[in-house]
Amino acid sequence: MDKQISLSELDIDHSAKVQALDFDGNERRRMLDLGLREGSVIKPVLSSPSGNPTAYQVCGAIIALRSCDSMRISVSPLAAQGGAI
Question: Which residues have CB under 8 Å from 11's CB, separation 6+?
Answer without folding.
Answer: 44
